[in-house]
Structure formats: C-alpha cells, structure tokens
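Q: Here's a chain of 256 amino acids. Please give me its 3D structure as tokens.
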Amino acid sequence: MTDVHCHLTHSPFSDKRDAVIKEARSAGVRIIIDSVTDPSLWEGEVHREEEGVYVSLGIHPQSVTEGDFSKELRLLGLLAGNPKTAALGEIGLDTLKNITDKETQMKIFLEQIEIAVSERISVIIHCLGQYDLLLKALKNTKPAVPVILHRYSGGDGQVGAFSTLGCFFSISGNILNPEGKKLAKSVMRMPNELIVAETDAPYFYIGEKREIGSPAHLPLVIEAISKIKGEDYHGMKQKIYENSKRAFPERISFPD
C-alpha cells in the first residue's frame, strides 16, 4: 500500500518518526509520501535516508501572503530534481480563510506547476473553496504530469470534469470521520482507476476516543472506499496500489 500524503514533520509525529514509519510498515504500508510545506525543512527532508519514504515539496496556499517568493521558488526548483522528491505539493488554491488574494495564490500555484512539468514529476493539489477556479486553471494549463487532488472535497457534480482531465482523486483519513458521509457521494462517482489513498495524518482521528490517525491506518481508508464502492477489499487495495504507480511514475521504486 502507498500513503500518498501525510505529514511526518508535524506534531506528534516529529518526535516519534521512526516508530510511526515502523508501525506503518507493519500494517503493510510500503511507500509513504511525506508532504513538507515548510521551506526551512525542505533540504533536510530530501536528504533523509529512509527506505520507502519520499517527499512532496511545495509552498502551501495558506502560506502565500503578500511578498516575494522568488527565493523559495528557486530552492524548490533545485530540490525538485532530487531523487527523493516524488512530487510538488501540496500546492494549490485556498481562499476559505481569506488569507490572500486569488491572483497571488494562482501566480505561485502556476509557477510551481511549471517547475513540476520541467522535472516531469507529479503535482499534489490542495484546494478549498475554489474547485471551479482550479478546474479552469487545469483546463488552461494542461500540465503534462499526473495531477493528484489531495483530500478531495469538491462536490460529486465536479467529479466527471476532473475525471475527464485524468486527475487522480486522493481519498484521505477524513472518510473515517463524520464528514466522510458527504464524501461518499463523490467516491461513488469516481472511476476506480483514478482513486488513490492517503491518510493526511495526523489530520484525522479514529473512533469515539478520537485517537490521532497515522499512516498505519491506511488500510481503514481503503476498507472504507471498498465498502462505498461495493468492491472486495483485497481487489480494491491492489487497484489503488496500481493507481499509485501511475500517479507517481517517476522517482518512486515500488515494491512488487
């Protein structure tokens, strides 16, 4: 199994990273893509030597404020070529919190897509409240790399349009939480060949005791997807694994 998006540098994982990775491997998670959106951590993370752990690097849209990002973009361009960099992300559009104007976010978003295309690596997209704008941007730019919609939260009515563009829908640990009921309608409409799985750990919880989720809980995410789809768990697990290979065709050495 492949957890295509989690945050090993975030609390509480940062203090017990080795244990979190070991637990995930014991659960059958062979590949982990660690999303690192703090530029001060980028260089250190790409030089870690951890079997099966890769990184996605990017300027998170919530970090885009007024100012000059040329330094971060230059560094991103350099590190995008590192063998451990599986993708650029999470990058995208997010105006729900009125953090900055759409134009600035779009500019930084498109510049990062250009870097990904130049390095022929995938992009992992964060989007909140701007799926119509994102769809328009992707139609206009037609990035020649795989596009993964992280923690998809768009409406079920938009699934068809993103599917036509060949975007992958990444279903996260939040499908195990109450909000997952709304997401189920979208999952039903997603083509099986475009679904990948992530935990987005630690940003979801398990059970009534609200235990913080980890990459080791990825099997629960896949189980939830298979139930929504009415598919056999093992068949869906294998399908999602094969989809992950197509979503990240460069850099990652997938086990057989």
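Q: Can you summarize the key feature?
A: The longest strand covers residues 85-94.
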